[in-house]
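User: Continuing from earlier, I have the next pair ready.

Assistant: Great, send them over.

User: Here they are, in order.

Assistant: Folding the first of the pair now:
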Amino acid sequence: MATNQNSPDDNGSETPGNASDTPETAASTSPTQSRPPTPAESVSPPPPVDPVAAVTAERDKLKDQLLRTLADFDNYRKRSKRDEQDAKHRGREDVLRELLPVFDNLERAATYAKTGADAKAIAEGVVMVLKLFEDTVGRLGGQRLRPVGQPFDPNIHEAIQQVESAEHAAGIVAIELVPGYQLGERLLRPAMVAVSKGAPAPAPSSDDDSNAN
């Protein structure tokens, strides 16, 4: 009787083991299955923000900004007021400094008059002082109004009375009573004047009186 020549080892190759046990399979395993988590993955999410605390902080910030703005504005207001007062004082000082020579000459004229000097010389000295005053006003940017012979203008003239005048027509300034002045385009004081109401009516002749009788 013939025996089976095929042994269990001759029936084929060895039975393959588990593929996961092979070195090649172990080497090909994904690294994500074994590496530790990164710090970014391990950080927990930030805690939620308290909305009331956020609004309170924003309110305090805006309040602080507002207080700073109010303080800056108050300092600016005080500084502006101080600068305005300083400018007024400097303006007054400049005017008085310009007028000092006028006062000096008036004082000299008054002293000269007390000595019993010639009245004509005193009058000439006063006229010179007045001329000096007008020159000083001109240097300061002002000027004296010259209303006589000009039509009456209520913007710069103040009528005190009306007079008859053969020299000036009705509505024309005939007499300057108090001089007026202006600084640039601004009126400092109107001129007080007497306005002409025309020539006087002719006096009745003697013939007219006899005819009336």
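And the other member of the pair:
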Amino acid sequence: MSTLAVVEEILRETAVPMSVREIVERAGVRLPSKSKTPDTVVARDLSMDLKRKGESSLFCRTSPGRYTLRTLVALANPSSANNTTTSMSALPARKPAVAAPSTTRARTDSDSVAG
């Protein structure tokens, strides 16, 4: 069974968004990876699945580091099923950075190095 299949099973059982740490703790020995850091394996697999499949992924990120099944989000709130994360266009526009004032000064004779 793949990592994502185990994650899907766990998210179906709990039916609530979970952190990667919570998923790993609940999965225990069911995870196929023998990695010393299963958290990173699960996080990587979820992120890559979301990046590759986009809206067709079984999973969605509800907040940074928390995941759930897309079908559960659709059932809980039908109006937000297609908008599970904040899009960049919904964020307020930032003011452009202002250049720091120049700190150059006139050179004096004491600045020159005698050789």
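Worth noting for the second one:
The CA atoms of residues 7 and 111 lie 66 Å apart. The beta strands are 18-19, 59-63, 66-69.
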